[in-house]
Amino acid sequence: MLSETTIDKFNELHLSKMGEMFREFLGNAEFADLSFEEKVGIMVDREWSSRRSSRLSRLCKGAGYVISDACVENINYATQRKLNKAMIARLSACTFIQDANNIIIQGATGTGKTYLSCALGVSANRNFYPAKYFRLPDLLSDLENARINGTYPKVIREVQRVKLLILDEWMLYPLTKTEARDILEIVDARYKRHSTIFCSQFEVGGWYEKIGDATLADAICDRIVNNAYRVVLEGESMRKILGGVE
Prior knowledge:
Blueprint: H1 2-12, H2 16-27, H3 36-63, H4 85-92, H5 95-98, E1 102-107, H6 113-126, E2 131-135, H7 136-149, H8 152-161, E3 164-168, H9 177-190, E4 195-200, H10 204-211, H11 214-225, E5 228-233, H12 238-242
């Protein structure tokens, strides 16, 4: 009866995994020779591991990755891609986030920009950094809707403050002046504070044409490029390779 009361208290204190381990100790003679200190240590480890796992799951789910199972361990380093494995290993250690640096991933359609960005996002989550993934067209649409319904300050603030922001399909379409100003508000607020991964089919010089306004383009690119790592993906489309198309 006392044991069940203790387990109930564990649950009430939101220490359910410790309670489960306590129950195992009571019901399994194999644990009889363990010292009190060892048993407490095992109970704490069980609770700690469960909470870390739950936190990681929440971070990954909240990031909204379009490829939810992406991970650096499964990156394809085929010679044709000319992908530097040592550089990816350094980036996956997430020191770039600590230093508030950016990453520019550039490559043609299908070369794996999205997968790589999501894999690096998951690496950030593993280090318990919050991340958020957006297709740039979707983000701009969200901001426009927020402007209409009066939630613009809240929505843009969340984008400005997340520790790692991933912007896919970067500069895929020409921007309106309002959209360019929204982008400037975001990159200016994040400059030297938080990290952003930009996935683009175009070299930086091509961004100017998409932004349109030369002054805004200079301001946006200056806040992105000067503290950014660059990853260029080459080779055939990964969709073609993985799909077995001849």
